[in-house]
Give the backbone structure.
Amino acid sequence: MTTPTPHSETTAHSPGQTLQRARSDPAYSAFLLLRIGFSVLPIVMGIDKFTNVLTTWEDYLAPWIADLSPLSAHQTMLVVGVIEIVAGIAVAVKPRYAAYIVAAWLAGIVINLLTYPGFYDVALRDFGLMLGALTLGRLAYVYDPAWHRHTAPSANLAAA
């Protein structure tokens, strides 16, 4: 078995080719699973901030954060919902960069939960999700090509 090299086989594939590649390359399969999960789940959770079908999200907001916010707890969670929807879309589009944004977001959630007694179990779960987002970022280094600038390097950089 060969180890994939950075930026190898980064061209678009048909669904059949993608499925075949996922079957034959466990790391690519893990990348796809994490990409799908970190795309769909933040979008679903973000939408639920507007409906509170899964839970009452305001209950998870630490009082000190609610006190800092110029908005009500409900309005703050609506802003959180929009951010989560955008994060999920960003992971779908460019996981190479967005995975680290999601990991940072999850770190903030963990901090929020650790400062509010009664949610340590959820904080631990979100810490695990943060590790998954970091793993997606590392796998995306191999399977998601970098965005490159189309500008010429400056004379100062070229001389360095």
